[in-house]
Protein 1
Amino acid sequence: MKKSLLAVALLGAFGVASAQSSVTVYGTMDAGVGYTNGANAAGTQTTLESGQQSYSRIGFKGTEDLGGGLKALFVLEQGVQLDTGSSGYNTTGSNTSTSTTSGNTGTFSSQAYVGLGGNFGTVKLGRQFSPLYETYASIDPFQNGFSANINNFFGNSSSTTSVAAGGNVASYQRMSNAVTYSTPDNLYGFKGTVAYGFGEQAGDTSAQSQVGASLSYINGPLTVAYAYHQANNDTVVGSVATPGETFKTNFIGAAYDFNVVKVHAAFDQNQQADQTLKTQDYMLGVTVPFGAHSVFADYTHKDNKLVQNADADQYAIGYTYTLSKRTNLYTSYSYVKNKEDSYINTDVAGNSVSTFQVGMRHSF
């Protein structure tokens, strides 16, 4: 009898402990066919791509209730290339599924952090999305996905380096060696995040470091957001950071949901090194949901004051059809018109680039 009571007590204690912590396996599997024209000198290209609408990944996340409103949390997330079965992920918007950039491969290269959360907000340590990149997703009609996503133009200080040399490789999307703090979600509609990524260079604590911040206000159908990012000594040429270069960007955007249509608008200004001249980007977009369908489109313009004849324009439209809460079909088309010295989405200066995508995404 005493043994039975002890067993019941132990099981009860174990049940309480189990209820205080949880681990979830999650992921997104996205694959489809992509067609591009003008991305390189060889001509058109048709590929089976992984991660067209959003990058394919598998992850583990968990929380533990520490009492008094305090909780521990973690995320381990790895990109997956569905076309080859290999690990890693594409830079969102790349024209082929074989295109990866430095830092995008390896175990848990997508996200890997541990943190504490409570009434004070959340502190996280590890590899994370930057505040700028997450702010883009809240405003971009394409939600940082598809070949037409906002990252083709925004956050790039120049459009004068080819895709092969890394001109459209944005080093701000994820921050390694990062400490972030985010405010609680209930501050009268306001939400803020600050982030610092250690450069970890001997003798110079600022070298290779990154700083990020964002502030948003959400009130019913209205979203207004600002974000800042600075990468010290981190201008990317291929996969090599050039010493002495500093990248800065300021972004502001807004969206308003009228139910039948949602409108989006954004502006950013980018500065590279000690250049007094800057580049500026403008975006106007719409999202039209109806039943299981959603249509979204935008127009984006780069005003390149840093280099002459390097302006560019993008026209894009996308469509999704929801099969269930976790599965959807999609397609998108984008057209980038580069001036003679602009390389956006292409290896050939001045090339116009057309991209068509169609595929399927499943989340779990």
Protein 2
Amino acid sequence: MHLKNHFSISILLAISLTILFYSTLTTALDEPEYGYNEESADGPKHWGDLKREWAACKGDMQSPIDLSNERVTLIPNLGRLTSYYKPQYATVSNRGHDVAITWKGDAGSININGNEYFLQQSHWHWPSEHTINGRRYDLELHMVHVSPQQDGTNKTAVVGILYKFGLPDPFLSELVKYIVEVPDEDEETNIGVIDPSNIFKDSNMYYRYMGSLTAPPCTEGIIWTINTKIRTVSRGQVKLLKNSVLKYYANKNARPVQILNQREIGVYDSIMADNIPHY
């Protein structure tokens, strides 16, 4: 009887330890490294203190910002922003805080100041991170581009597209069946060939400024281009994105606007630029 009781106790202890392990693991996975609740200890105001590698989050060139008409400067020589995208195989992934589309080969590029920036991935924020004259929109898409440098580093340029509620967005409509079955966090699903030009082709009017990544590590030196054309997205499409990520981020995954400091916000308007006399 003594051995039997000892064996039973050992089995119960092993089961308890197993349950505790998986419970702890699940809790750890559900607790993100940073959050968007401005009142919480891991909120945007504290990102720069959470990790040494995130110190840039306390920098002077942070994103997003408010694109105020009072602060912008017309810069005709910025030129039209034209993309040179091409269809390429892509994957969809749930990164916990957002849903991302990643192209696995050469999906084309944009040209900024004579440098080519190659498209890497796109992801969404709700509500929008950038505001225009104080107005925050319902969704923002970021198209992340990278330009390899000779010293082995990369320069990053992000194109931002703002959306308000209205008719469904055609690109999201194309992805619905994949987002519904988006994999668990940090896993990817192949979604076949995706043409980035279905998202963005070119822009005759946009804002341009120097900023940062809008999430840790908040790396600065990012070239931001925000298209002034506001697109539409359905409430159902935004809800679909929200339901695909960790519950911690379902309500909001947008960083508050940051202080502009002494930065210049350039704006390009093709109509005004074409009407400026050249001597």
Protein 3
Amino acid sequence: MRILMWVLPWLLPSLAWAETQVNIVGLFQGKAIMVINGGKPRTLAVGEVSPEGIRLVAASSDRAVIEVDGLKRELGMGQALALPSKEPAASGSVTLYADSTGHHFVDGHINGAALRFLVDTGASAVVLNSGDAKYARIDYKRGIPVSVQTANGVANAYKVVINQVRLNGLVLSQVDGLVMEGGSPAVVLLGMSALNRMEMKRDGIALTLTKKY
């Protein structure tokens, strides 16, 4: 196993994260350790995908092959790569408009997977069904199993921590979530574990969410 325990961030251009920086800091058979956007080192096994959408295709003691948006790149130990991002740079704010029923829906992402959200102040956490959780690469059965009361009776669920929730330019990390077994809810409920970390301002049918932390 070869591991590079230091990184030289001053050799890289400063960014507002309109692009994704990937540094390979450790390599061994079947796995790679990488630093993404200056964060903590993260280990990916072959086939795994990071929340930023970076998939590790192959890894050996001297190289890693990653795939982003269908394009494969090969990196050696200590090499860095700047990848253009299709998602907007984080602005910390998003404005939603109510539909004819008064509900606020928004298209967003969980761990890079595109999903539909409904603002729900009655939900204690970000709630999604098990199919959406699998789509967002959440291994929810490693979470804490709980029973929850629904309109249709008691249902099985799992408490989890979601790596990333993105609503256009507003990004939250490490958000408490709840995964329900089955196909309900049909959309992701944006509950209070996320909303408590935002300032909510209403102006007619407009709802502006601004990140606090």
